[in-house]
Write a structure and sequence with these properties.
single chain; alpha+beta; 4-stranded mixed sheet; 40% helix; 22% strand
Length: 178
Amino acid sequence: MVYLEHFFEHPLNYITAFYTSEKVRIDSCPHCHSRRRLHLHGVYHRHVIWYEEIFFIPIQRHYCVHCGKTVSVLPSFCHPGFQLALPFLLELLWAFFNRIPSSCALTHQHRHFITRRFLLCLNRLIEFFRFCEDPLIVFPDFWHKKAIKLLEMVFSVGKPHIFAKRYYDHFKKGFMAH
């Protein structure tokens, strides 16, 4: 399971602070809801694609002694299940749906996968905004305009990590999870 935490907005700042600052402590298990603090259980590394750069960042793991499951503390600029950084991912979607030419180095298949996955998750995004913002929000019928309106609403929440954390806390999965 993943636990999203806001550290910094750029991977370089996160990497330098990871080794110098205090580690995040998780006081209750998200699996079994035990009130006993989870133990630090090591570190693994993952890739994050940040526009034209690729970073190899450390991810903290925790272990629950009651249920035996692990929890990873993922920085909020990452999206669970994707290597693309959240701000980059949202800008790619915005550029695609607004037909803005993109100069990113991603292949056509990769961009197609991202947009298709976003379109498959539109209904859950609508449910989130109707629950958290206004239950009477009206969305356009056409999928293209609906996607643009949803992206505008995502950007109106504030910084991408704020939206991602709120969404993850509500559904316990990323907004692009299928």
